[in-house]
C-alpha cells in the first residue's frame, strides 16, 4: 500500500522579479506503508518545499499528491487541514514546543484538540515519553530540557495523534554529532516500532544509510544515488 505518492510535482516561486525560481520539477516519489525513506538534499535543493507539499502545507503548481490512496490535489482547504491534523506528523529541525507547557502537556494538547479524553491523552503522552527515554522529564518545561531531550519530546508530539505518515526536516540537525546520532537512532526505533511510514530529510549520509531507502534531491529534481 502506498502511503505517500507524489506524481509530476512542480513548484516555482514568483518573486516579483523578471523570471521565476523553479524550485521543484517533475517530482515522482512514493513511500510505502511501514517504509522509512531518506530524502538526501544539499541546502537549497528544495527539500523543505517538497516536504511542505507532501504534508499539505503548501500547494504544488502541477502534479498530484496522494495520501493513503486518496488524491489530495483538489480537496477544499478545510478537508486538507483535517487530513493533515489526523494523518500526518511533522518534525522540524527546531522543536517548536510550547514554552509555557510541560513536556507532557505538549503531547496532551494536540490529542485534546483531536477529541481524545484527557485521561487517555495523558496516558498516551507518558507512554510515548518513556519510549523515547524522557519519561522522568514529563513535568519539565522545554527550556529545562537539553536539546536532545527537546527533540525527543517533539517526536512524541508528532506521534500524539497516531498519524499514518511522518515527515521530518533535518530532525536532529540542531544537535551536536554525538547527540544527533543517539537521538536519530531513537527516532528510527520509534518509527519502526509503530509501523509508521516516514520521509526523513537529512544531509548526513551516515544517518540516511540507516533508513530503508535513500532518494536524492538536487536542484529540484530527484536523481539516482
Ligand atoms: P531546502 O529546504 O532544500 O534548503 P527550500 O525548499 O527551503 O530548500 O528552498 C528551495 C529554494 O526555493 C531556495 O532557493 C529558496 O530560496 C526558495 N524559496 C523557498 N521558499 C520560498 C518562498 N516562499 N518564496 C520564494 N522563494 C522561496
Ligand atoms: P546535552 O547532553 O543534550 O547537551 P545538557 O548538558 O544541556 O544536555 O543537559 C544535561 C542534563 O541536564 C539534561 O538531562 C537536561 O535535561 C538537564 N538540564 C539542562 N538544563 C537544565 C535546566 N535549565 N533545568 C533543569 N535541567 C536541565
Automatic annotation (TrEMBL):
InterPro entries registered for this protein in UniProt: AAA+_ATPase, ABC_transporter-like_ATP-bd, ABC_transporter-like_CS, ABC_transpr_LolD-like, MacB-like_ATP-bd, P-loop_NTPase
Gene3D superfamilies: P-loop containing nucleotide triphosphate hydrolases
PANTHER family on file: IMPORT ATP-BINDING PROTEIN, LIPOPROTEIN-RELEASING SYSTEM ATP-BINDING PROTEIN LOLD
One Pfam family cited in the UniProt record for this chain: ABC_tran
Domain ABC transporter, chain residue ranges per copy: 4-225
EC numbers, comma separated: 3.6.3.-
Single annotated GO MF: ATP binding
Listed name of the protein: Lipoprotein-releasing system ATP-binding protein LolD
Family: Belongs to the ABC transporter superfamily.
EC top class named in words: hydrolase
Alphabetical UniProt keywords: ATP-binding, Hydrolase, Lipoprotein, Nucleotide-binding, Transport
